[in-house]
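We emphasize that the prediction below concerns an isolated chain of 119 residues; any contacts that depend on oligomerization or on bound cofactors are therefore not represented. The input was used exactly as deposited, without trimming of termini.
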Amino acid sequence: MEQVSAGGDDVWLEAASWSDNRRELRVPTALEGSLRLFLGESESVQVVDVSNRGCRLRGVTLKAAQRVWLRIGGLETLVGTVAWCDDGEAGIRFEQRLPRAVIMLLSGGARDDDGYEDI
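Result of the prediction step, given as a token string:
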């Protein structure tokens, strides 16, 4: 992993490893969201981090490959698929990539991170 400074905050650029192929910046967050499965009821989740391709959730029990609808703040609903799940956490891969401006908004500021690669 390569550490990147983002306006005084330390964030991590995670390179490909044995467990994933992520190359984009994962921006830490502390946001509440709601998650819904197809034909299911919404449940509250915590969004732990977010990137242009996905996010990590805490406080949810899911199964890999489930399709989900995620609502974070005032954003339109994000559609994704559960990439992994373990011990109350899950990784969601978005169907549509998020623009840099949305990620910066979710991270609590509109700063421009030099280490961010919008791939």
